[in-house]
Design a protein that fits this description.
500 residues, alpha/beta, Udp-n-acetylmuramoylalanyl-d-glutamate--2,6- Diaminopimelate Ligase, Chain: A, domain 1, UDP-N-acetylmuramoyl-L-alanine:D-glutamate ligase, Protein-Tyrosine Phosphatase, Chain A, 3 domains, six-stranded mixed sheet, 13 helices, 26 strands, 26% strand
């Protein structure tokens, strides 16, 4: 009970515990349910009754808002802290059995985590990846972490990775989740906060800025740094030294510092940018690194340089780092190439804001000899007032645009497209092509591609569903593009778009 920090207990404690949950939908008979405050609401008034109805053996809560006649009531001062401590104990403290590196910070964190995982595997270390883009252990690809990750999710994933034979785990979480307590009670080798300009969405605050809670020793929910041989424990910060715009566009430089780490600066030059990849030549404290990255774009190259810097700080061999970068898979849904068998390129990208779309188009323009052909749409997650900005970005950054449906939810797709098109009209003086059926839109745009062009299927990225009128339907941009390329349909765009 000391781990709970209980203020009061009403009911029996002798029943066996079948599991832990903070979501009533995951409660089974015998579960201990933690009524964790969600989205600023002290307690969801319906969560506890639903958990009891599903058979919860005990309810851990901060307020005495129910009668404990069907479940033991345990009152605590801080439910989230209690959940973290109990989850770690319940799952056998899996972080003590693994080398755990957490990647957080700016929106580039998912790409850095993905590539760092590739480098651990290249070094011969069985390593799990827990990420917002999906989780991986060996060749097994698993669902991603939930959007609002809690300490229980982290402990469950670490325990699963350990059972599967992992010796290390790369864990990617947003700064707000760390400050909220998702890493409390975990023992970690390093927590990396990224700040990379080329892949950062300005709408997403970087760590410790823009209103985000402070992460580190002063936080209410900090983490337990575990120093290994070489002194690698602590909070690390990876900073983009080119953020101020100094140097030529194809030069990169990052600095890693913090904890007991000796500060490291790594500089690189990008050569031969093409849709097929990028030549990266770097100077590191451990020697020179020259590799051809098998995926395109400056942001991806910057994430690769960041991952390599962290891997070297963790004492991975330089040769293993180089080999891992040469054969690394593209970051899921981030300028992810689709094999075409043609002399034009198709990329799937998950940009979800106007700033990310602008960054994607600017990146593609750097390495595309022909035209940039864009397919995208706004959805229910985008506010109506922001949708015209997407149209303006598309009009400036793409030679040809097709608007389509992208998770409109209960909204009418044609209304959303009209709002986006209004911004396009302001820039181009003409309306874009609108094809509400996303599969048909992909076919039309691919049919219009010519040698040297690059087709960007934007918005969904690694997401593989379409939310429409209360239904969640499977839809994978990559799968539909591959099918269209095999069929080679005879489609054509409107004359004004072809002329563009």
């Amino acid at each position: 009970m000391s781990r709970l920090g209980a203020l009061s207990i009403e009911g029996a404690l002798s029943a066996p515990v079948a599991g832990l949950a903070y979501d009533p939908r995951r409660v089974v008979p015998g579960t201990v349910f933690f009524a964790v405050p969600r989205r600023g609401v002290p307690e969801d008034g319906q969560a506890i009754p639903r958990a009891i109805e599903r058979g919860a053996a005990a309810i851990v809560c901060e307020h005495l808002g129910f009668v404990p006649y069907r479940a033991t009531r345990i009152r605590v001062a801080n439910c989230r802290r209690a959940l973290a401590n109990v989850a770690a104990s319940f799952h056998g403290h899996p972080s003590r059995q693994l080398q755990v590196v957490v990647v957080s910070g700016c929106s580039a964190r998912s790409a850095v985590a993905h590539l760092l995982h590739e480098l651990f595997v290249s070094a011969g270390i069985p390593t799990g990846l827990v990420s917002s883009l999906g989780c991986r252990m060996g060749e097994r690809v698993l669902p991603p972490l939930p959007a609002e990750v809690e300490a229980l999710d982290v402990q469950e994933w670490l325990a699963g990775m350990h059972r599967a034979g992992a010796r290390a785990c790369v864990l990617e979480v947003p700064p707000a989740a760390i400050a909220r307590g998702c890493l409390a009670a975990a023992e970690l080798d390093a927590v990396l906060l990224t700040d990379l300009a080329a892949a950062t969405d300005p709408s997403e605050p970087s760590a410790d800025g823009g209103g985000e809670p402070v992460i580190g020793p002063g936080s209410e929910f900090t983490f337990r740094a575990r120093g290994r041989a070489g002194g690698t424990g602590g909070l690390w910060r990876l900073t983009d030294l080119r953020r101020g715009g100094t140097g030529r566009g194809h030069e990169l430089a990052v600095r890693l510092q913090g904890g007991t780490l000796t500060p490291m600066t790594v500089r690189a030059t990008l050569r031969d940018l093409s849709p097929q990849g990028t030549q990266l030549e770097a100077t590191t404290p451990r020697g020179s690194l020259a590799v051809r990255l098998p995926f395109p774009g400056r942001p991806s190259a910057q994430a690769a340089l960041a991952a390599a810097t962290v891997a070297l700080a963790l004492n991975l061999p330089l040769a293993a780092v180089a080999a891992g970068l040469r054969r690394a898979r593209a970051v899921p849904g981030r300028l992810d190439p689709v094999p075409t068998g043609h002399d034009f390129q198709v990329l799937v990208d998950g940009c979800s804001s106007a700033a990310e779309l602008e960054c994607t188009l600017r990146t593609v323009q750097e390495f595309t000899p022909g035209r940039v052909l864009l397919l995208f749409g706004c959805g229910a997650r985008h506010e109506a007032g922001a949708r015209p900005t997407f149209g303006e970005v598309a009009a400036r950054g793409a030679d040809m645009t097709v608007l389509t449906s992208d998770n409109p939810g209960w909204e009418a797709p044609e209304v959303i497209s009209a709002q986006v098109a209004s911004g396009y009209l302001r820039v181009r003086g003409a309306l874009p092509r609108v094809v509400p059926d996303r599969s048909q839109a992909i076919r039309e745009l691919l049919a219009a591609a010519r040698p040297g062009d690059c087709v960007v299927l934007a918005g969904k990225g690694h997401r593989t569903v379409q939310e429409l009128a209360g239904c969640i339907l499977p839809f994978d941009d990559r799968a539909h593009a591959e099918a269209a390329l095999l069929d080679e349909p005879e489609q054509s765009l409107a004359p004004e778009e072809v002329a563009a």
